[in-house]
Amino acid sequence: MPVQREQEPKSPFVFTSERGAPFSTAGFARMVGRAGIVAKLGFKAHPHMLRHACGYALANKGHDTRALQAYLGHKNLQHTVRYTELAPTRFKDFWRK
């Protein structure tokens, strides 16, 4: 069952401004950048980091590399492998059934 988003005013857009208008690409980038400052990350945050975080999170949960490739829309598997190389559970229970 799909999760219903609660948003006022109702909008078909995922990210909207306080006025209910859709965020521009630049506006969304500014929002992510400000969130990084508030979080005191120590580096400039940008929206593409969310995509990388998603890739690493799914790899760390043990999802299949080919499934990750399809989900992230990578044509080349090497672009997906970077997410699985650092997964701490990569070889956990490798020899156990």
Describe the overall structure.
The structure is a single chain. The radius of gyration is 18 Å and the shape is elongated. It is built from 4 helices and no strands. The chain has helices at residues 25-38, 48-60, 65-72, 77-85. The protein folds into 2 domains: 16-46, no CATH class; 48-85, no CATH class. The model has no long low-confidence stretch (mean pLDDT 84). It has 97 residues and is an all-alpha fold.
Secondary-structure element order, as H and E? HHHH
For the largest beta-sheet, the strand count, sense and barrel status come to: none
Shape: elongated
Average pLDDT value? 84
What characteristics describe this protein?
single chain; 97 residues; mainly alpha; 2 domains; 4 helices; 45% helix; elongated
Topology overview:
Layout: H1 25-38, H2 48-60, H3 65-72, H4 77-85
Helix pairs in contact: 3-4
Give a quick precis of the structure:
By secondary structure, this protein is mainly α.
